[in-house]
Structures are given as structure tokens and as C-alpha cells.
Amino acid sequence: MESRRDVFQAIADPTRRAILTLLAGQALTPGAIAEDFHSSRQTISKHIQILTECKLVEQEFNGREIYYHINPKKMKEVADFIEPFRKMWDARFNKLESVMKKHKNK
Amino acid sequence: MEQKTKVNAEDGKQELVITREFDLPVELLFKAYAEPELVEEWMSNPYSTTKMLKLESKKQGGYQLESKDAQGKVVFRANGVIHEFVPNQKITRTFEMENTPFGVQLEIYEFKKLTDDTSRLNMHVIYESVAQRDEVLKLPFAQGICMAHNRIEEILSKLKMTR
């Protein structure tokens, strides 16, 4: 429960969502994750730390390497709670945008 | 793909913030909130038609709207008072769903120009209590509004395929 706020802060950031998408495909080492981004390794490592703290991402040790993978249970929790509300607004705003684009071209 | 609409609802707070960037000049974005025919158009969808019974777009103006389903039955009515109306910048208003236990919410809309063709809407909503906010957040479940796939579900389904 204590971590719910952190979870929403975590997914509010586009880089962190990109990391989650990346990890959805496979478990990766911090180095492999950082290679996918223009940001510095330290920045990415900070993002991973936040994702780990709120349990969206978990560590596993494989020999000397640390691999990160997604925690599907936590991800599901986030999706269930707020997504329908967000999607409702997203659909509304998409409509607004298309209505006003038409209006502009009239 | 980056999510265009973001909702920030921190745990234990009686407020939330919705932000969205639009491929529209700020003037057009603002107009979508100021002119009744336009509000009606974008608020309507295949399942319900929205009508502005009243919209006085000015300080101390009021508004009332209702939505009808395809059979013409009124399914939703809401009203409020406009406290601040600054063209292309800001609208502060109250919002109340009639005949519901959700109380009155205060809504602060901030319209920002990003470029000549893009703009951002920041919608800050303050509820009477934390409990009321959380009830409103859960509303789309109750109404069964489940639209397009969302990002996290996509990630989850991708995960299922690969494991």
C-alpha cells in the first residue's frame, strides 16, 4: 500500500515506461538497458532504482550479473486501478482534437 | 508510442491532475471549451449525445449539460458555475453531477501554448474528500467504459507471449 503513490509517479515518466516496455520482452542487465537510451548510465540506473523501489521491476542474480525483469502482478495492479479513468479522458480528448481539427479546416 | 493523456492521482490526496498535449493551436483548444456547439460535438459519442442546456462562458456564468443515450433517455446531467474565464489561458469552474453522491468538484483548466500548432491542457480537479476522489476514479469501471488497449495491458500481454 505504501508504494502506490510511488508506482504512479514511476509510470508517469516516459523513460521509465520505455524501460518497462523493454523489460516486458526480456530480462536485461542495467548495461543492456542503458544502451537503448541516449541518457547517461547514471540517469538510467536512477530510473531502474525507482522502478525497483516500487516493485514494478525485480532483480535477479545470474552469476555475477544482475538482471532486471518486470513484476507482472504489480503492473496489473496499476493497470486495474487508474487506467479506465485515463482511457476515458484520452478518448474524450482524442475526440476534441479531431472535432477542432475539422473546425479549423472549415 | 507516448501516452498523450496523463493522469496523476497521488495516493491519499483529494485532488488529481490530468494533462494532455494537443495538435491544436491554443486558441482552438480553448474554443472547444467556450462554445456550446463545439462542446456538444466533442462530448458526444456513439453511445450518448450531449446537449448544453446552458453555457455562459464568462466570469460568474453558469452551465448545465445533459447526455442522452441512443433511446433518448437522459443518462447524465451535470452543472456548475464559472469563477474565472480568461480566454486562451484559464477557466476555473465547479462541476457537479446531478443526482449522484459525488459532491461538487473544483476544476482549474490551464491552457498553454506550446508552439503555433500545439498546446497543452492542464486540468486540476479538487474533490470534497479523498474518498470522493477515489470513487470518481473508479467510475469508469462501474460504467463499463473500457475502450482501446492501454499501454500497461499491452506490456502485460507481451509478457505473456514471451514467457
Describe the structure.
Chain A is mostly helical. Chain A has a domain at 7-80: Orthogonal Bundle (Arc Repressor Mutant, subunit A). Chain A has 5 helices and 2 strands; from the N terminus they run ααααββα. Chain A has helices at 4-12, 14-25, 30-35, 41-53, 72-105, and strands at residues 57-62, 65-70. A two-stranded antiparallel sheet of chain A has the order 1-2. In chain A, strand 1 and strand 2 form a beta hairpin. Chain B has 163 residues and is α+β, with helices and mostly antiparallel strands. Chain B has an 8-stranded antiparallel β-sheet, with helices on one face. The longest helix of chain B has 13 residues, at 130-142. Residues 144-152 of chain B have low confidence and may be disordered. The interface between A and B is large, with 42 and 46 residues.
Average pLDDT taken over every residue of chain A? 85
The total strand number of chain B stands at 8
Which spans of chain B of ≥5 residues are poorly predicted at pLDDT below 50? 144-152
Ranges of chain A where pLDDT stays below 50 over 5 or more residues in a row are: 1-5
Total helical segments of chain B: 4
The proportion of residues forming helix of chain A, as a percent range, comes to 55-70%
Please state the structural category of chain B: alpha+beta
**Shape category of chain B:** globular
What is the CATH topology descriptor of the domain at 7-80 in chain A? Answer: Arc Repressor Mutant, subunit A
Largest interface, counted by CB within 8 Å of the partner chain's CB: A-B, 42 and 46 residues
Strands of the largest sheet of chain A, in order across it?
Answer: 1-2
Proportion of residues in β-strands of chain B? 35-45%
Major sheet of chain A: size, sense and barrel closure?
2 strands, antiparallel
Q: What is the arithmetic mean of pLDDT of chain B?
A: 86
Distance between the termini of chain A: 51 Å
Gyration radius of chain B (Cα, Å) is 17 Å
Helix content of chain B: 25-40%
Given the helix and strand composition of chain A, which structural class is it? mainly alpha
